[in-house]
């Protein structure tokens, strides 16, 4: 099997397993907030890790499939937020292209760049895309969905900023740094 086939197979497996983990985290490790239909999510720090490791397309599919399965098995499919999870995954994957986590590098500067970028991805996704889709698809009241969006953007940014940064640092520490091996 050549590297391209191996890479495609690896990504396919990552999408399947990642979607299952996204569902499990979303179903069993979400903390409700006083704002209706919003939670502190552990799914997005995990999605950030998957995006940085595997790239934009696998992360978008993990967000799309994982969120869709969670919705289908809980209260019903809510397309606006499912699609937004795909956008978030894609954004995290784009951020990952700028980092060298797979090469064992994730220093303070990388953490700052990652977190500035993830806050932007979360803000665009949850303050703009999700509410606009809620209005267009479901005719939801603007004040309700923009409130939910602002709360979700803040909570997701905080969760990714803390848990996502920890996950990325831990993962980077498991990778062999380029040039770190020496022949005796």
TrEMBL record:
Membrane-related topology note: Multi-pass membrane protein
Database matches in NCBIfam families: PRK13661.1
An example Gene Ontology CC term for this record: plasma membrane
PANTHER family: UPF0397 PROTEIN BC_2624-RELATED, UPF0397 PROTEIN SPR0429
UniProt keyword Membrane present: yes
Organism: Fundicoccus ignavus
Any Pfam family the entry gives: ECF-ribofla_trS
TM region(s), chain numbering: 12-31, 43-65, 77-95, 116-139, 145-168
Stated name of the protein: UPF0397 protein GF867_00780
Family stated for the protein in its record: Belongs to the UPF0397 family.
